[in-house]
Amino acid sequence: MSRVIRQPLFILGFLTIFLITLASIIHATHFDSAIPQTEWLKDSEGNMIAGAPLEPAKDYPFGTDKYGNHMLEQLLQGAKYTFGATFLTSLLGFSLAFLSGTLLAFWKKQGSKAMVKGISSSFYFVPLSIIAYNILHPVLWEPPEGFAYPLTGRVIYEIIMLAVILTPTTALLIADETREILKKEFIESSITLGASPFHIFKKHVIPHLQPRLFIIFPRIVVQVLLIIAHLGIFQIYFGGTSVCYDIFCDPPMPIANEWSGLLGMYIKQINYQWWLAIGPLACFTISILAVNSMAAGIKKGLTPPIGYSKKRRTQKIKRGTPIHDTTYTLDSRDFKRVSNG
Predict the structure, then answer these.
(1) Which one-letter DSSP state was computed for residue 204?
(2) Which residues contact 87 (CB under 8 A, 6 or more apart)?
(3) Residue 141 φ then ψ, to 5°
């Protein structure tokens, strides 16, 4: 892991996510999540020359919405919610996939294994966002009589459902990686010597599977970010979509200023008030690129470079002459004739 944290790509991606999260936390703790408002733009003589929503300017670099709320502060406010939900969902989905994937790899019943694999493989061909929409809409879309479940229940339900949706495809990937390890000769030797499946899993599978798991987890994070963004476009916001059923109402609103809610509210206005949707789109794009950068750094750090020879401790031969185990080319001096026959 020491080589991983020194990789420029990993450092770049990690710092990007860390700084955005830190800025969001500072905005909440030191500025009480306050969102400035600029409803009118006036000239030097005090005459009104424009009203909200205002295009990006020096005082509000991401512009304002129709109420004059600065978009930059709204994005900062929503970053901690978006990253928090993404991390929890990814961690739960990864845990479920790891457990089910390793169990599938050790499963001996070929008929049942083929059936489970066939069902799980179908998730490769159906967009996960569509599945998530159909599962979450009945709970997260507010009916005329109001939400049937409290906010905490809706958040927990969404995290669990998204994790379950991500599990099949990731479990198959982990199962395939585990099966490749189980085909190794040293695994067969351990089985011959009477090692239990748990011993093989703990002592042999985990050490060889661990590098792959570090690469798989960032991919799950990217999947969760994409699904949350797609759900936002479908107006299924994290924690619930507040819907008004009166005659004169605002469009469906998110419960919090998380990024998918901002994206869903303003994506239809991208042609004439482009700055409203560009902000959350840019945040999702930068976050996904940062996570992919971390994944590339992890992969590069865990892969030894070509020609790399791991330095081993100095060994001693019987005469006491030290031999430094580096890249070494054999020649005739390394051999001794023992017989003329």
Answers:
(1) I
(2) 221
(3) -90, 120
